[in-house]
Amino acid sequence: MNKKRVFHHPSRSLSLALAASVVALAFCVPALASLGGDVSSVEADGAHMKATANVRQTEKYAVHEIKASGGTVVNEYVSPAGRVFAVSWRGPFIPEMQQILGAYFQQFSAALQSQKKQYGHHPLNLQEPGLVVQTGGHMRAYVGRAYVPEMLPQGVHAEEIK
């Protein structure tokens, strides 16, 4: 008996796996706040990720860098008012999106579902009212960022979120 093997393009499989992971996280990971949360949510994220943290202060905001033991680095951008207006990540693993998006995860999840047919082989670039999420990369080298345009401090441009 011959078995037929079907091989899928690696980036399509990766894209589908990422989408499935994001949807699965909606049901199994508690949100602790992050994007849109206050500065105390940064500490909660670090504890949840069992990570080390460093803070870098700029003129317009503070960047809290959280390094997980698995190598993924999450940067949380905190405004002078103490709110997390953006997050970015890089590393071998995608961070728990519900964890870092906090209250914005529902909007992200809904937008991801509505773009299912367009997602395919391309990096994710969601530009929703009140939320931007951009991701890319490949196995063991993921990058991304998410921000709330209305929350960017005066004089801060989206290009600064890396």
Folded structure, characterized:
The chain is an alpha+beta fold. It has 5 helices and 7 strands, in the order ααββββαααβββ. The protein has helices spanning 10-28, 40-48, 97-101, 105-114, 116-119; strands at 51-57, 62-68, 73-78, 84-91, 124-128, 131-138, 141-147. A 7-stranded antiparallel sheet has the order 1-2-3-4-7-6-5, with helices on one face. A hairpin with a 2-residue loop joins β6 (131-138) and β7. α1 (10-28) runs antiparallel to α4 (105-114). Mean pLDDT is 78; it is low at 1-33.
Topology:
Elements lengths: L9 H19 L11 H9 L2 E7 L4 E7 L4 E6 L5 E8 L5 H5 L3 H10 L1 H4 L4 E5 L2 E8 L2 E7 L15
Antiparallel strand pairs: 1-2, 2-3, 3-4, 4-7, 5-6, 6-7
Helix pairs in contact: 1-4
Helix-residue proportion: 25-40%
- How many strands appear in the DSSP assignment? 7
Give the assembly state of these chains: single chain
Mean pLDDT: 78
Spatially, the strands of the biggest sheet line up as 1-2-3-4-7-6-5
Q: Radius of gyration in whole Å, from Cα?
A: 17 Å
Summed up, the helix count is 5
Q: What's the story with the biggest beta sheet?
A: 7 strands, antiparallel
Molecular shape: globular
Structural category is alpha+beta
Amount of beta strand: 25-35%
End-to-end gap = 53 Å
Note the main attributes of this structure:
162 residues; 7-stranded antiparallel beta sheet; single chain; disordered N terminus; globular; alpha+beta
In short:
This protein is α+β, with helices and mostly antiparallel strands and 162 residues long.
